[in-house]
Each structure stands twice: as structure tokens, then as C-alpha cells.
Amino acid sequence: MTPGILLRTGATALVLAVGATALHAGDIAEYMDFFEPLPALPPIPAGNSLTAEKIELGKMLFFEPRISGSGVISCATCHNPALGWSDRIPTAVGHDGQVGNRNTPTVLNSGFLESQFWDGREPDLEGQALGPIQAEIEMNMELGAAIRRLKEFDIYHEHFAVAFPGEDDPIRAENIAFAIASFERTLNTPNSPFDRFLRGDEGAMTSQQVDGMKLFVDAGCVACHNGPALTDSNFHRFQLPGSTDEGRFVVTGDDADMFAFRTPTLRNVAVTYPYFNNGSVDRLQDAVQLMGQQMLGQDFSDDELDSLVAFMHALTGEMPAVTIPALP
Amino acid sequence: MTPGILLRTGATALVLAVGATALHAGDIAEYMDFFEPLPALPPIPAGNSLTAEKIELGKMLFFEPRISGSGVISCATCHNPALGWSDRIPTAVGHDGQVGNRNTPTVLNSGFLESQFWDGREPDLEGQALGPIQAEIEMNMELGAAIRRLKEFDIYHEHFAVAFPGEDDPIRAENIAFAIASFERTLNTPNSPFDRFLRGDEGAMTSQQVDGMKLFVDAGCVACHNGPALTDSNFHRFQLPGSTDEGRFVVTGDDADMFAFRTPTLRNVAVTYPYFNNGSVDRLQDAVQLMGQQMLGQDFSDDELDSLVAFMHALTGEMPAVTIPALP
Predict the structure, then answer these.
(1) Is residue A18 pLDDT above 60, yes or no?
(2) What pLDDT band is residue B26 in, cutting at 50, 70 and 90?
(3) Interval B4-10 mean pLDDT
(4) Which residues are bridge partners to A8 per DSSP?
(5) Which of A55, A71, A234, B129 has its CA 20 to 30 A from that of B77?
(6) Which run of H or E residues covers position B235?
(7) Hey, what CATH topology would domain B4-33+189-313 get?
(8) Quick one: B52-184 is in which CATH superfamily?
(9) Where does CATH 1.10.760.10 sit in chain A?
(10) Considering all CA atoms of chain A, what is the largest pairwise distance in Å, rounded to the nearest integer?
(11) Taking the CA of residue A163 as centre, how many other CA atoms within 13 Å lie in the half-sphere pointing to its CB?
(12) What span, in angstroms and rounded, lies between the C-alpha atoms of B267 and A181?
């Protein structure tokens, strides 16, 4: 266990003394200080104001399979609302059944992340949105072709015009990204038992879940899993057994980034299995044990594992109520 | 124009005199007698009573991609709720991107059809439901594997048990079909302008749509497109330019069935393009013209086409309000 942990909360970095001597069983408030309830919305970037028109258009585009080469794959294929806005298979299956090498991250609360993709190669959702459309093993459509496809429909002309008023030719790549990112920023899961507990509803978590929360702090999990989405959005080296993925190194070429992946959010972790960059671990308790061993040098006991897993179940929030759009 | 048309309405066959001499512009009521508003529910088969439990389970199975070989294709992939419960591409794209040779029929109102598939090879939705799961170019999963997959989830054990009470081993193929068919029987689109017009709301259709309705009767379209779903569920020979599909002949081996296809429903036809067995016709007016030429030996004028197409737009009903299920 690390006695001093660098904890980043928003823009503030602070060193907190963590340990059995610093915190006692009754000091729930001090444990709770490590966390914050999920806000209703993530930060909205200055360059892409959040409007109802963009959200509505973004929803249409998110569910639009005709901006894929096959005509049947949309963002919602892998980020499936029925499956925690992910796919619950080890690694993504895309165009012509091609299998990728990374697990699909959930879109839920992704607006709270400070970098996108497992390797953080895009800084924000706007940067992320256009990647899978073009990726040959995912949706496999060139942006020019996607734009031409959208322009075939009057209703897209109308929706882009109202979402991006004053533009002569609003159906363009940047606006597709703006709209999809805007929709995604609404896909948050507030009011989990954990959030309600943090807001003062002591009965919202079971005593086992509270024990898990304490252990989560005491053991040091919170060093990386902090902030509203329980991720520092930073990169940590971690060699998953069987994985040859070089992770962040692919982006930076920096040896220090070899096998480093962005800390995933733990929000809704119980419903976004399987786990890790290659989705090779199905069970949450196995994922927690592996993390304890690799990141903390610690073998959790069965009781500890049960508490941590119970706590993670308390991180499942209210799923966004998204109605299926009627596409043209 | 055929002066005497064999009109099947339910179980009753009757010969009606149709023509300019029999019906006049003012005789709206007589035209309306050819039609019936869409009932709230289709006929429920004696062997598969409709229950809330089966509907809920069926919805889960309909959206469940893990009963496909790839893990990402569900019934909802091709029967996409965002796309009129069809796919709006010429022919279906399934496992590993394989392209089928027939257009995906909409699920909407399919409980009103007296046979399923373009070639009618299954009599009912129960018979239809298991086909695409197993088809190698669609979902590509053996039923045994699908059942094993479902059995991995506690929640499916629970849902099958309450949907099929008293069974020792309810997660079985027949019950999968029963549940999916039950869900599908709820996917109906009542209260179209046409339905409201038939119920007495004279302002529900425009005068052009009313003209289209009359022409639809006078020209003889109603001979095959009748009944609540505007289909006789029968098979008619029709060689679509460019199509080599032998249609119903594949099922019966009867020469009379060569190139015969089941009359498709015209309910929601404006939102279930492209048209015909190979989805080769994009525009509704072109589809109507082609039908006039092939089935009625008639070239519609531009005005007539406009009226008929306007009428068909009046057949778009209220889409079922289906929330996306939370899958395990």
C-alpha cells in the first residue's frame, strides 16, 4: 500500500496521506472526500457549445448505418445502448466481420475523459468521433463518401442547417464530429448508489459496498481511478497476460509509454465487461485481482475482492433514456 | 383496368364490380369499404398466447447480438427500429459482411401477414424467427450454440422461466421463437392518416391522397393489396428487371410459382424503401409505375403516380414506442 498518493482532482493536484493510521472505520466523510458525484454534464468545450439541435442531429448520426461501407454498421453497433453502450465481446467486430485488437470502450460518461481511445490518441470526443467511421476494420467509409451519403437526404440538410446556422455548406466532417460529440456528452449515468451515498443518502450503499469504497481508497486504487468518472485520464504501463498491444507507445513512440493504456472509467464497470484493452477478462473479480497484483503489488483476499466488486456494482448509474431516432 | 376483381378479405372471397361506372367521385364510403383500419393487434395464434412476459423476453432476444456467430448481429441489425424496422439497403448484409439476395422485409405489422419471407416458406412469425439466427449469411449461429449462450446469463433463466412457467428447461429453440414472435406482434403502426380517414376523420388525408386511394381501387391495386396490412399474403409472378430470383418456386418446385413473390404489405411503404425482392428500386413512384405496368398492364400518368404516392404516404402509421432493452 502506498502511504502517499498523488491524487488529481480536476486541476488541483494534492498529496493525501492514505493508510490505516490516517483513516478509521468511522471516518466515512474523509473517504468520501476522495470522490465526487457525477455531474449532470461533462465540461463543454468552448468550440462546440451544447445545443438541443446538435444533440438531436448527433443522435441520428450515432445510429446512422448508412455512413458505413456496408450500410449496416453504425456507432451504435459497437457502442450498443442495449449493452452498456459497448459490445460485451472481447474486441470489436466491424466491416466484413473483421475483428479489431482492442475492447470497445463504453460511450457512457466519455465526456468526462480527458483523452479518448485506449491509447489517448485523440484529446476529445470531437477527435474521436470520425475515427471509427473511416477505420477499415470498423465502419470503413471515407468521410467524403459519408458526407455525400448524408447529402442525399433532405432531412439531414435541414438538421445540419439548424444545428450549424449561418453556414453555407454545413454537412461537413467537422460538424459531423461536433454533433456526435454533443450527443455523446448527454450519455451520462448519474444517481448511482455511489453518487447518492456521496450526496448524503447513507442507505444508498450496503455496508459491504462501503467497505469496498474504503478499501478502494486504502489500497490505492483511487490513485488512478479518481475524478467524476473514476479515471485520471492518464496512461499507465500494464502488460496484460497474452496482450502484445504496445498501447500508448504506438502514439508517442516513447519507450516510457510501451504497454501503457489510459485508465478506463470505473463508472458502470459492472455492465461494461469484458475488461482491459483486449477484453480478455470476463469477470469483474478477476479484473480487480489482476489490477491489485499488477498496479499495487497486492493479492486481495476473497473478502476484499467481494467488497471491492460490491463497491463497483454501486457505480452503475441510471442509464440515459434514449429513444431510437427515426432516420430518413 | 379489370372490371371484376377477386378480392379476399379475411376468409371471405367476393367478386366486386370495380370501375368508373360502379363508383363515382362522391362515393367515398364505397371506396372505403375496400379497406379496414389496422387493428391494434394481429391475430394471436392459439399455440402462443400473447403475454407481457413473452413480449419482454422477445424484445431482449430481438436486440441480442450474442446469439450471432460474430456477437454483433441481432435481429435489430437488419430489422433496425431506426430504419422502419428494416435496413434501407437493397439486400441484407449479414455475417462477415456477406450480402444476401433479398431485401429485408419490415417487421412492422408482420403479424398480419399470412405467410413469412418473400417466398412464404414459413407460415408464421414463429417459423420465421429462427431462420435468420441460423442462416450462414445472416446471424450464422447454430441454435444449440445460441441456447448455450443464453444459458450463460442468469437473467435469461429468469425471463424464460416466467415467460414459460412450469417448464423444466425453458431456454429452448421453440420458446425463443415464441418470445420473438410475441414481441413482433406488438410492432404495429396504427393511426396512420389512412386509418384515421377510414374511421371518419375526413381531414386526415389530403384530397390528393383521397384521389390516390380511389385510383388504387379503380386501377386494381387493391386486388392484391387488401386486408389490414394491404397484402393478400398470396404469391404473384413478377419478373423484376435484373432479378434472377426464382421466388416461390424455390419452395414449391411448382412451375406456376416461378418468379412469384408474396405481396408485400404497403403499410409504411414510404419508409421501407428500397423496393421489391432485390431492393433494386429506390423511389416509390418508380415502384408504383413498375407495378402498374407489370401487374395491371397500365402506364400511370404523372398525376396518377403523384396521387398514388401521396396515398401511400398516408399509410405511414405511428411507430411503436420501443425502448432499448438493457441486456445482461
Answers:
(1) no
(2) low
(3) 39
(4) A13
(5) A55
(6) strand B235-237
(7) Cytochrome Bc1 Complex; Chain D, domain 2 (1.10.760)
(8) Cytochrome c-like domain (1.10.760.10)
(9) 4-34+189-313, 52-184
(10) 66
(11) 32
(12) 35
Distance set, CA B282 to CA B48, B122, B148, B275, B278 (Å): 37, 27, 41, 6, 11
**pLDDT per position as a tens digit, A89-122:** 999 999 999 999 999 999 999 999 999 999 999 9
Rounded Cα–Cα distance for residues B59 and B76 (Å): 10
Q: Which residues in chain A have Cβ-Cβ distances shorter than 8 Å to B321?
A: 323
How far does A76 lie from chain B, in Å, by closest CA?
A: 10
**pLDDT at residue A152 is higher than 50:** yes
The CATH class that applies to domain A4-34+189-313 reads mainly alpha
Burial class (CB in 10 A: 0-12, 13-18, 19+), A101: middle
**Chain CA centroid to CA B150, Å:** 28
> pLDDT confidence of A75, banded at 50, 70, 90?
very high
**Residues of chain B neighbouring A71 (CB-CB closer than 8 A):** 87-89, 93
The C-alpha cell at A257 is 509509454
pLDDT at A157: 98
Which residue of chain B comes nearest to A69, CA vs CA?
Answer: B97
| Alpha-carbon torsion (B86, B91, B97, B98), positive or negative | positive
Helix (H, G, I), strand (E, B) or coil at A244: coil
User: Residue A77: which of B72, B95, B327 has the nearest Cβ?
Assistant: B72
- The 8-class DSSP code of residue B78 comes to H
* CA distances from residue A123 to A11, A253, A302 in whole angstroms, order as listed: 16, 17, 38
For the segment B190-210, the average pLDDT, to the nearest whole number, is 97
CA A200 to chain centroid, in Å, comes to 26
Ranges of H-type helices in A24-88: 28-32, 52-62, 75-78
B→A contacts (Cβ < 8 Å), by residue, are 63-66, 70-72, 77-78, 80-83, 87-89, 93, 95-97, 271, 319, 321-327
A174 is catalytic: no
Q: What is the pLDDT of residues B279-288, one digit of tens each?
A: 999 999 999 9
**Of the candidate ranges B10-24, B108-122, B164-178, the one whose mean pLDDT is the lowest:** B10-24
Predicted confidence at residue A27, as pLDDT, reads: 82
- Measured CA to CA, the distance from residue B170 to residue B177 in angstroms comes to 12
CA B21, CA A53: separation in Å to the nearest integer?
Answer: 53
Helix (H) or strand (E) holding B5: strand B4-9
pLDDT of residue B324: 94
Domain(s) labelled CATH 1.10.760.10 in chain B stretch across 4-33+189-313, 52-184
What kind and span of H or E run contains B313?
A: helix B302-313
C-alpha cell at A71: 450500410
- pLDDT, position B242: 85
Per-residue pLDDT of B156-168, as tens digits, reads 999 999 999 999 9
